[in-house]
Design brief:
Length: 307
């Protein structure tokens, strides 16, 4: 049996758990961790591995002697399973592993570019449609027993639909909190309050409406000290400074230090401001440094990044 995403609006709209026993459902409850002291920043890892749903999609495992894996759970607070499909449901193996170590596991809701705009606008066409889509996401989360969503809207939104997008995020957040205590919804820094698609690399008055509607924001990667300070000041005024996750792209793309084994440089810069971090695409090691030396190279990257 395989764990697979939902690729179309119609698949989400018609999704139903059914009545059969489903071995893709998580069976491991979220382990307890010691309470986090106030003022301690959080660390999120966002999986981005060759498009996702590789051999990890098989519930019973697969004959893959050199798979990508993540085993530094003790350093992180939450894990996002990411792909570029419309509704990315985390494979049960990832949910089980995360929960065993007290780490929350999130799926990804994403719309991108022209095709994504059509799909996005079907969701936010009306209050009825946005609530129905959000309710489906809550049902999926509850059925598969994971912990929330990254909302990644990377397409232009019509100006008269921006408020509906905000309502979608707000309604999803409120409903999932009611259904699953401790669940979270994280917004990716992308669309502005005008509907323009323009990454800000900071929390500001142009994207704050979405931050206010959910549990946190995942900032894009091209930040600098000034933008970190701006983000921190605004978040502190709201009493939510630990809810801004500053993005680090391990592939480097515009990120301080250039990513890779220099990922620590970006993380250290973020921690100087005592801010939370979102580490994107640690699969860089497996994808670019050779599968045969994965464990050695993974240890080298993670020891640098998380200590």
């Amino acid at each position: 049996m395989e764990c697979l995403p939902l690729k179309t609006f119609e698949e989400l709209d018609s999704w139903s758990s059914g009545d059969l026993i489903d071995c893709r459902v998580n069976t491991v409850p979220l382990a307890n961790r010691k309470g986090r002291p106030k003022g301690i920043p959080k660390t999120l890892v966002c999986h981005d591995m060759c498009g996702g749903y590789l051999t990890d999609r098989f519930v019973q495992g697969a004959e893959d002697p050199l798979p990508f894996c993540f085993y530094h759970w003790q350093y992180i607070d939450s894990f996002i399973y990411f792909s570029h499909h419309f509704v990315t449901i985390p494979p049960v193996t990832w949910i089980n592993a995360a929960h065993k170590h007290g780490v929350k596991c999130y799926g990804t809701f994403i719309t991108e570019w022209d095709e994504g705009k059509v799909r996005c606008h079907k969701v936010i066409e009306s209050e009825e449609s946005l609530k129905k889509a959000a309710d489906k996401l809550v049902e999926i989360t509850k059925y598969y027993q994971f912990d929330g969503w990254l909302i990644n809207i990377e397409n232009v939104v019509d100006g008269d639909k921006v408020e509906n997008l905000r309502k979608f995020v707000e309604y999803l957040t409120s409903q999932i909190h009611q259904a699953i205590p401790g669940s979270e919804v994280i917004w990716y820094d992308s669309v502005l309050n005008t509907g323009q698609l323009k990454w800000q690399d900071e929390l500001n008055d142009k994207n704050c409406m979405f931050f206010d509607a959910c549990d946190g924001i995942f900032l894009n990667y091209n930040w600098n000290d000034g933008k970190l300070q701006n983000s921190l000041d605004l978040a502190k005024n709201k009493g939510r400074d630990m809810d801004v996750y500053v993005g680090i792209d391990v592939f480097g793309r515009g990120c301080l230090g250039g990513g890779g084994y220099n990922t620590l440089e970006a993380l250290a810069a973020i921690r100087k401001f005592n801010m939370s971090a979102a580490i994107f695409a640690p699969g860089w090691v497996w994808e670019t440094q050779g599968k045969e030396n994965f464990i050695e190279n993974e240890n080298r990257l993670e020891i640098l990044a998380f200590t």
